[in-house]
Amino acid sequence: MKYLFTLGVMFSLFMATGASAEVTAKDEKQIRQRLAQAIPGLEVTRISEAPFPDVYTVETRGQETLFTTADGSHLVVGELYQLTSGGVVNVTEQSRARQRAERIQAVAAEDLISYRPKGETKAVVNVFTDIDCPYCRKLHQEVPGLNEMGIQVNYLAFPRSGPNTPSFAKAVSAWCADDPAEAMNRAKSGRSLDSKTCDNPVLEQFQLGQQIGITGTPAIVLENGTMIGGYVPKERLAQALGLQ
């Protein structure tokens, strides 16, 4: 198995042979201590074995993925690619995807604005959306067709202009409406919403989007954490989900 780094340093480190070692409590403690000393403020969320020997994958709260030696003395920051018979696999992005999936799965169902199929739900997509984004509105027009294909669409708020802006206020009004899904339909069609406030998840979801690397909308996140940026026609999205 061969691996390609965007950074050339430490090449010899990864040429060792043998099976990947499990993370021992001693190694994990040592890695956490070394990283805390070297990079104050870095919040490590998980340390796991890398797909090659004597190196561990370190996942952080900010979605940064590091690769470090067992003693924490050397690390690589950047994209790691695995060269396989089927092509090049971005190992770093796989780690990010897993983190995205876990973070979104932790969002309470009642904090989502969901559009569910009438029949069997075959797949679920999570969409970070901005009410005033033209391509978000275009994607919203595809929601009934996605539901017909058995695809559930969950909306999370990502008003790109940020807090204390008209778009942010519209998102709050939608989430606080008596019928959030209908309010979203209304807002996405350009109609006005009654201004409402309540205990709502808009800021939390906006911050979550920033933490998992979202910079624009719509941002579609599949159940496995794969992210698709921008508008995608329903047929292409169904293909990406393996439904066509």
Description:
With 244 residues, the chain is of the alpha+beta class. The protein folds into 2 domains: 2-95, Roll (Nuclear Transport Factor 2, Chain: A); 107-240, Glutaredoxin, CATH 3.40.30.10. 32% of the residues lie in helices and 23% in strands. It is built from 8 helices and 12 strands. It has helices at residues 25-38, 91-105, 134-140, 143-148, 166-176, 180-188, 202-211, 234-240; strands spanning 2-5, 44-49, 55-60, 65-69, 75-77, 80-84, 87-90, 113-115, 123-129, 151-157, 219-222, 227-229. The protein has a 5-stranded mixed β-sheet, with helices on both faces. The longest helix has 15 residues, at 91-105. It starts with a strand and ends with a helix. The model is unreliable at 1-21 (pLDDT under 50).
CATH third-level topology of the largest domain: Glutaredoxin
Approximate helicity band? 25-40%
Low-confidence stretches are 1-21
**DSSP summary, beta strand count:** 12
Please identify which CATH superfamily of the largest domain we are dealing with: Glutaredoxin
Radius of gyration: 21 Å
User: In DSSP terms, counting alpha (H) and pi (I) runs of 4 or more, how many helices?
Assistant: 8
Please identify the top-level CATH class of the largest domain.
Alpha Beta
Q: Oligomer, anyone?
A: single chain
- The secondary structure category is alpha+beta
User: What is the H-and-E element order?
Assistant: EHEEEEEEHEEHHEHHHEEH
Work out the strand percent: 15-25%
Please give the domain count.
2
How far apart are the termini? 33 Å
Assign the CATH architecture of the largest domain.
Answer: 3-Layer(aba) Sandwich
Instruction: Record the strand order, biggest sheet.
Output: 8-10-9-11-12
- Described by the principal axes of the CA atoms, the overall outline is globular
Major β-sheet profile: 5 strands, mixed
Overall pLDDT score: 87
